[in-house]
Write a structure and sequence with these properties.
Keywords (chain B): Cell membrane, Membrane, Transmembrane, Transmembrane helix, Transport
Largest sheet of chain B: none
Radius of gyration of chain A: 24 Å
Shape of chain B: flat
Number of domains of chain B: 1
Order of helices and strands of chain A: HEHHEHEHHEEEHHEHHHEHEEHHHHHH
CATH topology of chain B: MetI-like fold
Number of strands of chain A: 10
CATH class of the largest domain in chain A: Alpha Beta
Structural class of chain B: mainly alpha
Membrane topology (chain B): Multi-pass membrane protein
InterPro entries (chain B): BP-dep_ABC_trans_perm (IPR050901), MetI-like (IPR000515), MetI-like_sf (IPR035906)
Organism (chain B): Bradyrhizobium agreste
Number of domains of chain A: 2
Shape of chain A: globular
CATH superfamily of the largest domain in chain A: Periplasmic binding protein-like II
CATH architecture of chain B: Orthogonal Bundle
Oligomer: heterodimer
CATH superfamily of chain B: MetI-like
Structural class of chain A: alpha/beta
Distance between the termini of chain B: 37 Å
Family (chain B): Belongs to the binding-protein-dependent transport system permease family.
Number of helices of chain A: 18
């Protein structure tokens, strides 16, 4: 018995004497997008280089993630070490001191290589509060075969008049081909992303310099009337419930002649595994009305560190890895250049190998460059953001307005009634929030 | 002639019952079918019902991407644990209210039910802060506790109505024979209430298994059950229906199997009490 006891004590002492490497576990919250899933799959490459760090992923649907992460960050719950957040949240959360500024991304990170518009969108007071993982704008995707057959030629910078005219000409409802597919599903990130960008090109704005809502202006009336009439004449049936995915499915099935949506869709519609029209797709900048603004938005999914995290050093290491130039090369070596996360770095758009496999690359870059979150529309505005106003109240207001506009598209209300309801709802919320009296 | 009319009536009602059953079952069937389609086919308009290219690639992707067993084990522990604890609390509570009611019993029952009328999001932040202080965030114990509390009013109400159906005379007879309260509960009341107990247990197990609000908000990875497993397959940009269907089919499979084998008890229990 004594021997056994001695042996146990000895073994315990030996075990204690072995230096134990302290492991930091990072909990990363993200959305279920192709690029994010690819990043999860490549995590082992990061942990191989950093054996003292392990990674746990929490993947959630965008709106669930937003609510979940907001609760945690507002209560300083400390459940997450790295968050995936959009350009809408970054300036608001940075102002509330909810995010840790990224000051130690490493000497070889090359911050100057980040696309200026995207870098601006994730910075506040000159400090980087999030690192862009992938960025996007919106552009026109169209069927080259249908355009050719109809004797039409899409300009690189089309006007709304041309797009509307072409959409009407190319509509053949009996054959199940619709001239244009646009977002109609209600939501601040759904139909309002498109309609706000379209309104910018018509010279409309969400608020004037005194935060007074502007839905009672002729610019908004023209925007909404044009949109509703165009969709009625040349859009698919049930368009008021179509979002990105529904339109993607319609376009890939060959049912849309023109689709204006996120640049990230370009890789889906040109992928023969997913699209029936992969080799018949052309691209152009989002339409304009000659007022100097195109109807395109700017968005990026970014990685940030919440103020409640106690593992900021490891978290910053991960962010630097996932948003670096080396990560892009890693994805290219494993899955090909067509699958690298787009829209964040200048160097990607100078890479011949990428340009070879991504025919939409130049237009993606041009679209991102054409969007200006600080000057989104023709007239001056008091807010930052192209397809949103970066204020906490916008999510609620945007969704309410989106519901009105979706109802106008569905025909359950008129354009005038929808605009009046949008104006009064926005005025009410802005008064409640103290922006106006 | 009368026999023919009866046969026809039986045939019509059988066909109507099958049609109704099929309609109820259709969303699950559609989900199962979609899980064997490619993403493009799952989203295709018009949709194909049976004649498509069948593939198991979605299940392979789901297995590769997520740890199904980890999530399933958490679901079993959280749903099972919360249901058992709720039953342990609810049996004596319902017993006392059914057999020794006071003038406040009805008010208490109504008050308990009223807690279910408040939307849970209203108390999310206070609960989150309490959980943070007690270190219960992302813990199975924390989820067992909150789901137990959430379902307790329903468990008590169901058991109360079942117990009310049991004739008091039987309990009085047991007492005359010298049975204590404990013996009365274990040997007299419980065997008589078994169908009711079984259906309460099953219904609450299903409720706890499917509960998504608290499980999504109070867990991250360690305690994440199958609801978070499903939520991770919805995507704002990209086709995801087929993979989501595969994940959902896997998530409901255990509870579907359990429901299938215990349907007799479930139906018997649900038709036993006053709550139909």
């Amino acid at each position: 018995m004594k021997h056994v006891l001695g042996a146990v004590c000895g073994a315990s002492c030996l075990m204690l004497a072995v230096p134990v490497m302290a492991e930091t576990t990072l909990t990363i919250a993200t959305v279920n997008n192709g690029d994010m899933i690819r990043m999860q799959g490549l995590t082992s490459e990061f942990t191989k280089k950093n054996p003292d760090i392990s990674v746990k992923w929490v993947t959630l649907e965008e709106n669930v993630l937003r609510q979940r992460v907001t609760t945690d960050i507002a209560t300083k719950g400390g459940q997450f070490d790295v968050l995936t957040i959009g350009t809408y949240e970054v300036p608001i959360w940075a102002k509330k001191a909810w995010l840790v500024p990224l000051a130690n991304l490493g000497a070889d990170y090359d911050v100057a290589d980040l696309l200026p518009k995207i870098k601006d969108a994730v910075s506040a007071d000159g400090k980087l509060y999030a690192a862009p993982f992938y960025g996007e704008s919106s552009m026109v995707m169209y069927r080259t075969d249908l355009f050719e057959k109809a004797g039409l030629k899409m300009p690189e910078k089309p006007s709304w008049d041309f797009v509307i005219d072409a959409a009407k000409k190319l509509t053949d409802k009996s054959a199940g081909t619709y001239g244009i597919c646009l977002r109609g599903k209600a939501g601040w990130g759904e139909n309002m992303a498109f309609l706000s960008a379209m309104a910018n090109s018509y010279g409309a704005r969400w608020f004037d310099e005194q935060w007074q809502p502007q839905f009672n202006t002729p610019e908004w009336k023209t925007t909404l009337t044009t949109y509703v009439n165009l969709m009625k004449e040349a859009g698919p049936p049930g368009a008021s419930s179509n979002g990105f995915n529904e339109n993607l499915a319609l376009f890939n099935a060959g049912k849309c002649a023109v689709w204006i949506d996120a640049t990230v869709a370009a890789s889906f519609v040109t992928n023969p595994k997913e699209s029936k029209v992969a080799d018949k797709v052309g691209f152009a900048l989002a339409p304009n009305t000659g007022l100097g603004k195109n109807a395109n938005w700017l968005w990026a999914w970014n990685l940030a560190i919440p103020a409640g995290s106690k593992k900021t050093e490891a978290a910053e290491k991960f962010i630097a890895w996932a948003t670096s130039k080396d990560y892009t090369k890693l994805v290219a070596s494993k899955e090909g250049w067509a699958n690298v996360p787009p829209g964040t770095r200048t160097s990607l758009y100078q890479n011949d190998e990428y340009l070879k496999v991504a025919p939409f690359a130049k237009l993606t870059l041009a679209s991102i460059d054409a969007a200006d979150p600080n000057k989104p529309t023709v007239k001056p505005v008091p807010y930052v953001g192209v397809q949103y106003a970066a204020i906490p109240e916008f999510q609620g207001i945007g969704t309410q307005v989106g519901q009105q506009f979706s109802a106008a598209l569905a025909g359950s209300t008129t354009v005038d009634a929808a605009l009046t309801a949008a104006q009064s709802a926005t005025e009410r919320e802005m008064k409640r929030a103290g922006y106006i009296k | 002639m009368a026999r023919m009319a009866t046969t026809r009536r039986v045939m019509i009602s059988t066909a109507a019952a099958w049609l109704f059953g099929f309609l109820i079952f259709f969303p699950i069937l559609w989900m199962g079918l979609a899980s064997f389609k490619t993403e493009l086919e799952a989203f295709a308009i018009p949709p194909s019902f049976l004649f498509f290219h069948w593939t198991t690639e979605n299940y392979a992707t789901v297995q590769e991407r997520s740890d199904y067993l980890h999530h399933a084990m958490n679901s079993i522990i959280i749903a099972g644990g919360s249901t058992l604890i709720a039953l342990l609390i609810a049996i004596p509570a319902a017993w006392s209210m059914a057999f020794s009611p006071t003038k406040r019993t009805k008010d208490i029952l109504l008050w308990m039910l009223s807690t279910k009328m408040m939307p849970p999001v209203g108390v999310l932040v206070p609960i989150y802060l309490i959980y943070k202080s007690f270190g219960l965030l992302d813990s199975r114990i924390g989820l067992v506790f909150i789901l137990c509390l959430g379902n307790l009013p329903i468990v008590i109400w169901m058991l109360f109505t079942y117990f009310k159906e049991i004739p008091r005379d039987i309990l009085e007879a047991a007492r005359m024979d010298g049975a204590t309260i404990g013996r009365e509960l274990v040997y007299v009341l419980t065997p008589m209430a078994i169908p009711g107990l079984a259906s309460t247990l099953l219904l609450n197990l299903i409720l706890a298994w499917n509960e998504a609000f608290w499980t999504l908000n109070l867990s991250t990875s360690s305690a994440a059950p199958l609801t978070t497993f499903i939520a991770s397959y919805s995507s704002p940009e990209g086709l995801f229906w087929a993979k989501l269907s595969a994940a959902s089919t896997l998530a409901i499979a255990p509870i579907l199997v359990l429901g299938w084998f215990s349907q007799k008890q479930l139906v018997r229990g649900l038709t036993f009490g006053a709550v139909k």
